[in-house]
Amino acid sequence: MNADDWKRSPLNLCNTALLFLAFISV
C-alpha cells in the first residue's frame, strides 16, 4: 500500500485499522 492509495481511499486505512482491532480483540 502506498500513501497515494490512502489519499485516494481514506476509508481503506480506516477499514484496515478496524480489521486489525477486531483481529487482536478476538
Compile the SSE list and pairings.
Layout lengths: L2 H6 L1 H16 L1
Task: Supply database-style keywords.
26 residues
Describe the structure.
The chain is an all-alpha fold and 26 residues long. The chain has one domain. The protein has helices at 3-8, 10-25. The radius of gyration is 10 Å and the shape is elongated. The termini are far apart.
Distance between the termini: 25 Å
Backbone CA Rg:
10 Å
Task: Give the helix level as a range of percent.
Answer: over 70%
Number of domains: 1
Chain-averaged pLDDT: 78
Overall geometric form = elongated
Outline the low-pLDDT stretches: none
Spell the H/E element sequence.
HH
**What class, by secondary structure content?**
mainly alpha
Please give the number of β-strands. Answer: 0
> How much β-strand is present in the residues?
under 5%
Number of helices: 2
Question: What composes the largest sheet?
Answer: none
Briefly summarize what is shown.
The protein contains two helices and no strands.
